[in-house]
């Protein structure tokens, strides 16, 4: 039975296309860094609501909110204390309702982050588990085990945290609990029915408040092999996600297990009970063929394509990734996804200019000086990469600030770093703060318009040049390029396939989208001739009618 659910004061969106997400452009907001309404230096929900007209003018279809739930920020909000409330520093549930109402008024969908692998150690369940003791029902909601060694002084296994060090933390009574991320993020036991029931309630809670979809954090880690004895992996390195290929598909002890899919089939029944159905997208760092399983119509429907983000600026490599991604998505009955930047990676304006083989972390530790990145060349390449991405069939996910061409802030002083990776790795990995620096809206002010006060991470003076105010209405600016491309994209979309040109020069990507338009991306170091057609938009000016290096063009056929 389909249940029509609306929230008082919100428009009924049920008449709109239930498959809107298949070729949508979705804008990721990291709430603490988008806009600050109350002047405390931390972005908030009212700040987002006040700036939604920026997204509407940009031309995106939806916004995705990274976590805004109560949290001590041990991991940037991904340590959730209450899944059905708003962090008081960011606002209230009424503020959230006002945000959704304004987004829907502007024609924008709203997607929220769901973090089901772990809670905060401050979550009421985990506090109950600590107080209840070994063998209790409260502890069964998490993964507690006795340690090894004569006195249980050794961790239960050699599993390692994604952020460095053991994935086990000992509590005063001697037992250990599992945390694949920080110790402040204890992993839930998804074999426990109370855990499953609580997340069903959470899905309904936000869906009833008008949310249009969910982004599922670490979607591949929920199911774990907890049968005794727990399996060692043999070395710390093998427990990292990159070691998935060393196991038969679906058999790693805690990543991408086959059992995880029954969880998402259960969720899909809930999401499909709404009109229109709620969409979902998986963050699943797994090989492409396995990733497609999460995107099946009876599961989440879509999954992030990280191969594209990780691909080098190389025509051959990008063509292979694009072709494979489209085939895998089609086989699953899903649409492909494309992303260049997000809250976890070096911004692509900087990253795409790093020489092949450069270690991102080593570059960050050097403050962005070894090697030095030519920001102008990086912006040119980033604009070309964006126009290429927006021409591809499927959904494009845009990270806040990339429409301004923001570079990575690689030279943040170590004393201001907030990412737990810095401390947890013993100052070996600098972390992700450089892509989370608050946005510049104006060319002046204590935080360049982010808020009436300062900002929780320092903004470099050069941010004034990238501010919305500096680019708004300026021909050729990156902001206007995004607006133009998104406006054209909405008019040109037709079908979910592309056809590669067989006669494109080496180093050039050229494909047709239906019989209406085509995309040509020049990844070489020299200008190339364009095929016949009316030029609709280019990422950089043409050079005597030719497509210059690191430049993409759309043409009407």
UniProtKB/TrEMBL annotation:
Residues 28-436 form the Glycosyl hydrolase family 13 catalytic domain. It holds the Pfam family Alpha-amylase. Gene3D superfamilies: Glycosidases, Oligo-1,6-glucosidase, Domain 2. InterPro entries: GH, GH13_cat_dom, O16G_dom_2. It comes from the Bacteria. Belongs to the glycosyl hydrolase 13 family. PANTHER family: ALPHA-AMYLASE FAMILY MEMBER, NEUTRAL AND BASIC AMINO ACID TRANSPORT PROTEIN RBAT. This is Alpha-amylase.
